[in-house]
Amino acid sequence: SQENFILAIESSCDDTSAAVLRNDKVLSNVVATQAIHQQYGGVVPELASRAHQQNIVPVVHQALAKANIDKNQLSAIAFTRGPGLMGSLLVGTSFAKSLALGLDIPLIEVHHMQAHILAHFINDEKQSQPSFPFLAMTLSGGHTQIVQVNNYFDLQILGQTLDDAVGEAFDKSAKLLGLPYPGGPLIDKYAQEGNAQAFIFPKPKVEGLNFSFSGLKTSILYFVQKSVKKNPKFIEENLKDICASIQFTILEILMQKLKLAVNQTGIKEIAIGGGVAANSGIRFRLKEAEKTLGWHTYIPKFEYCTDNAAMIGIVGYLKFLEDDFAEQNITAKARYSL
Ligand code: KG4
Ligand code: ZN
């Protein structure tokens, strides 16, 4: 069988990443996470583009070195075209275009959300692949979507968030509790020792398969203000129970929508991705649903859940097989529908 080497570049948000794939196998996947945003409690777009400028060349060098591949062996260059922050996307897009031009090899544009979904098809013994058709739920700091996947290139959005992403819901709730950014993993940690029924937060009333998380944030804000007024030490005294109750509410919302999607489509193949897929609660719920509802559930390796170039590379490889190449005058797209 033929050996194709794809260099992939991801720069849509605050991670600069480069990967090299040999066909559907990952040889290297280098991610430079931008620590600068932590002190601001969220991603600052202007700082993100500047950091990408600094990181992109060393990250690509490292990816090639780790893969033990010379740049002249590359078959094509895949890059994230969108959606994402424009200034961030421009860095990866311009870099990929120049390098493809210089090496005189094809350029492949990749949709970031399609990449989160097709990350399941990276050939790795530590992960198994869903079969078509399946339902993909992408959960991260920037996205919350349920997509019906009929094949690699036939994707249909069934529902998405109308406001905040689920990771934002975790992070903003954590911020209200005085926890550092990103607070999602901390809520998860404290929730594991807390009572999820201690406090009740309202669930949004959103029709169909769309999501809304901004109401939860507001109700937590009022809850915190009211409770602290009565007892200034309320949060520290009840942190585990509060975290468990918040996480329970978010998981209820996610599971309710997934069950509705399964009922509407009859599809029981469920593939989860995005940084929030690391959450221990969602993992437990999915295992439970395998036993009680007969679902088959899939979660990629964690490094392929968070933003990474390996997932861009697998889409690049699948498009390479189809000769689906981009023009040299292609432009980044901050808003880019699936
Ligand atoms: O995919 P990701 O690394 O970046 C993008 O947003 O694209 O996702 C990061 C998000 C953050 O909101 C973070 O708080 C959340 O994933 N997260 C978690 C957990 N680990 C990461 N949320 C809940 N529980 C976790 N264990
Ligand atoms: Zn992402």
From TrEMBL:
Subcellular location: Cytoplasm
Organism superkingdom: Bacteria
Database matches in InterPro entries: ATPase_NBD, Gcp-like_dom, KAE1/TsaD, Peptidase_M22_CS, TsaD
Keywords, sorted A to Z: Acyltransferase, Cytoplasm, Iron, Metal-binding, Transferase, tRNA processing
Primary residence: cytoplasm
Cofactor note: Binds 1 Fe(2+) ion per subunit.
Binding annotation for substrate: 138-142, 171, 184, 188, 279
Residues engaged in binding Fe cation: 112, 116, 307
GO MF annotations in UniProt: tRNA N(6)-L-threonylcarbamoyladenine synthase activity
Record-annotated Gcp-like domain positions: 25-313
EC number: 2.3.1.234
Reaction(s) the record says it catalyses: L-threonylcarbamoyladenylate + adenosine(37) in tRNA = N(6)-L-threonylcarbamoyladenosine(37) in tRNA + AMP + H(+)
PROSITE patterns attached to this UniProt entry: GLYCOPROTEASE
Pfam families: TsaD
Reported cofactor(s): Fe(2+)
UniProt-listed PANTHER family: TRNA N6-ADENOSINE THREONYLCARBAMOYLTRANSFERASE (PTHR11735), TRNA N6-ADENOSINE THREONYLCARBAMOYLTRANSFERASE, MITOCHONDRIAL (PTHR11735:SF6)
Family: Belongs to the KAE1 / TsaD family.
Role description: Required for the formation of a threonylcarbamoyl group on adenosine at position 37 (t(6)A37) in tRNAs that read codons beginning with adenine. Is involved in the transfer of the threonylcarbamoyl moiety of threonylcarbamoyl-AMP (TC-AMP) to the N6 group of A37, together with TsaE and TsaB. TsaD likely plays a direct catalytic role in this reaction.
HAMAP family: TsaD
Name recorded for this polypeptide: tRNA N6-adenosine threonylcarbamoyltransferase
Lineage start: Bacteria, Pseudomonadati, Bacteroidota, Flavobacteriia, Flavobacteriales
